[in-house]
Amino acid sequence: MTLADVRDVAIIVLAVLWVGAGIVLLLVGFRVLVLLGMIADRLDLLTGAALEVLASARDAAGAASESARSIRGTASFVGDTVVSPVISVAAAASAASRFVGALVRPRGATRSGGQQDGSIE
Q1: Which are the contacts of 110, defined by CB distance < 8 A and separation ≥ 6?
Q2: Predicted structure pTM score
Q3: Are the CB atoms for 108 and 116 separated by under 8 Å?
Q4: Residue 100 domain flag
Q5: What total number of domains does the chain contain?
Q6: Owning domain of residue 1
């Protein structure tokens, strides 16, 4: 076998290797395209699910806002119709009790029952 024969065999082996590498490269490229298609489909599904969750969160936020408005109105109504009259009645009762206490208490007497000049006996 001469050097020219070795060269020819090496060229043939390299050509077969390059063809094999090209076929492998084509197969890998095809698989990458299939994988990208699958990823795109999954991404569409994920985007749809995310939009559903976002819509649900918006609905929940709207319901929470409506509940807060309702609670605010209820608190205002209760304050106006129940608490304010009770405070007014309690203030009037306290004023009446002080007025009666001032009328019944003898002149010169203090609340503690001691003398008015502050001396202790």
Answers
A1: 116
A2: 0.45
A3: yes
A4: no
A5: 1
A6: 1-76
